[in-house]
Amino acid sequence: MKKRIEKSFRDADQKASPIEKYNSNVDRRTSQNGPLVFSAFVAVAVFLLVMAAGFALVGDFTVGGLAVAFLVAWAATMSVHIAMQWEKIVVFRFGRFSRVKGPGLYFTIPFIEQTALKADQRIMVTGFGAEETLTSDLVPINVDAVLFWMVWDAKKACLEVENYYNSVSLAAQTALRDAIGRASVSEVAIRRNQLDQELQEVIEERTSVWGITVLSVEIRDIVIPQGLQEVMSAEAQAEREKNARMVLAEVEKDISAMLVDAANVYEENELAVRLRTMHLLYESVKGSGGTVVIPSAYSEGFSDAALDKAIDGLKSGK
């Protein structure tokens, strides 16, 4: 039977998500070491004082004196307490709220007043997630997030909710699932910062009545199914190729328009064609550093008569 129980605990630990393991391994008992040591010191000190007083009065240690010392020491530990710097203590009297004490030394009346809650007012870190949650386009994704929050009103944290730590965790998980269900998978992946802000506002609205304020929410990881990752990558590549082709087509359109304008200029002015021919030949000779054989049909453009005609044409503005 014992082996079966141990095996079930191991299986549950293996199936637990990293967030659940993190939350289960958090040690929240560190603030109790100081108060426990102080209570032990008070009990021992009061016990010794009562025993010394009994010995001074009776002149001997008796069983009755020992019992009285024990009862007084027990009552002292129930009356004198300390709260750590980060703690707020909610005290009830006859089952009704009495006051909030701490940090430091505080007193209670035994059997009449009780400590209902020790609220830790440090910044708390709660990991939460949404596993296999469907987006608005019906894609199951896994999202892990971290919530930073703190208790600012210990009275409300005690009176308004049964277990404020678990309630905050469940409220954050529910808000995350709702936010994922309203967005598509691409929006969840791209709008991470906006999702953080939306979650913070929603969780803050739910937890403020419990005396809890939300400092920030941070999405740590978004896991999309492997098959969908390949499809989204192919879609992104196709979109980039489409944009590249559109830019190339726009450039070719501009170039063709400029070529048409140049052709119209050359058609109206034969001299411009010859000047362009001469320029091309000059660039060829300059680039090659050698000589170029010019066909006889083009050599006329370099004759003196042709040059004089070109000069006259430029002067006349033709």
Automatic annotation (TrEMBL):
Transmembrane intervals: 36-57, 63-84
Q: Which domain of life is it from?
A: Bacteria
Ranges for domain Band come to: 78-236
Q: Which SUPFAM superfamilies match?
A: Band 7/SPFH domain
This protein's UniProt keywords: Membrane, Transmembrane, Transmembrane helix
By sequence similarity, the record places it as follows: Belongs to the band 7/mec-2 family.
Extract the PANTHER family matched here: AT06885P-RELATED, BAND 7 PROTEIN-RELATED
Q: Write the protein's name.
A: Slipin family protein
The lineage is: Bacteria, Bacillati, Actinomycetota, Coriobacteriia, Eggerthellales
